[in-house]
Write a structure and sequence with these properties.
Helix 1 crosses helix 6 and helix 2 crosses helix 3. With 258 residues, the protein is of the alpha/beta class. It starts with 23 loop residues before the first helix and ends in a 7-residue tail after the last strand. The longest helix has 26 residues. It is globular. The chain has a seven-stranded mixed β-sheet, with helices on both faces. 43% of the residues lie in helices and 19% in strands.
Length: 258
């Protein structure tokens, strides 16, 4: 029999993970330090985790989300630029792509085109005017937001009418074996492999944290409901391989018929 999980605070993506931090303020500082300290290893370990298929998957997910040539893109939680790099290719002009992240260390470790804009910032308070972007993406950073409702309202605000949103996230498999397999891979196998290939001593910790935040995260239907509450329309979830969720939505355009 499964033990019911504690309910996270309103609009938080998950309950506090007290093995790592105690308060919300502690959480933000902890994550920034952890990502800054492991940035040099991040892309290398991610390539092992994804068996080298991550770039192709991210590109296809952005296409499914509606990204097209010439669109002005904002990538939230840009990190080392794994999603943004694909957006630069698909838009045809890296200058059209802007990345935002609270970790300067991750952005410094990126290998993105010089013409792409990188800015330090948080999803809950975006430093951009209303109706500014055609497309907004976020890759595997939903679990690191402090308040989904506030962040999603910001996403809606900075999108142009008719603008599209695509959030990529890893979610638990529906079957018990799938959950066991992913947990042992992310919390056991990957941290073990980092002993031999990583340059930073905390790299194993970040991958254990990734799984713990996945396990504690609110269910996909709650993410969909919170996106809809932020006045985004046509909200849906596309699922790949049972664990890779793509949340897609469109900002309402008053000039277009329903």
């Amino acid at each position: 029999m499964n033990t019911p999980r504690p309910t996270p605070p309103v609009h938080a993506p998950h309950i506090p993970l007290t093995d790592y931090y105690q308060t919300e303020q502690d959480r933000q500082a902890y994550l920034r330090q952890m990502f800054d300290n492991t940035a040099a290893d991040y892309d290398h370990i991610e390539a092992i985790f994804a068996w080298g298929s991550g770039s192709r998957y991210r590109r296809q997910a952005l296409i499914r989300g509606g990204l097209k040539t010439g669109m002005k893109v904002l990538d939230i939680g840009v990190g080392t630029g794994l999603v943004a790099a694909q957006a630069c290719i698909l838009t045809g002009n890296a200058a059209l792509v802007t990345g935002v992240d609270p970790s300067p260390g991750m952005m410094a470790a990126s290998k993105l085109p010089d013409t792409m804009v990188l800015m330090e910032g948080r999803a809950e308070s975006l430093p951009f005017p209303d109706n500014h972007f055609d497309f907004l993406s976020m890759g595997y950073a939903l679990r690191h937001i402090s308040d989904l409702g506030v962040a999603f309202s910001e996403f809606e605000r900075v999108l142009k009418p008719g603008g599209r949103l695509c959030i990529l996230e890893i979610t638990q498999a529906q079957n018990r074996f799938g959950r066991w397999l992913l947990k042992n891979y992310m919390r056991g196998v990957i941290p073990f492999l980092t002993r031999f290939v990583s340059r930073q001593k905390n790299t194993a910790t970040i991958w254990r944290y990734h799984w713990d935040s996945i396990e504690a995260c609110v269910p996909p239907e709650q993410v969909v409901a919170t996106l809809s509450a932020a006045r985004l329309t046509q909200v849906k979830r596309h699922l790949e391989l049972g664990v890779f969720s793509e949340y897609q939505a469109i900002k309402a355009d008053p000039g277009q018929p329903n």
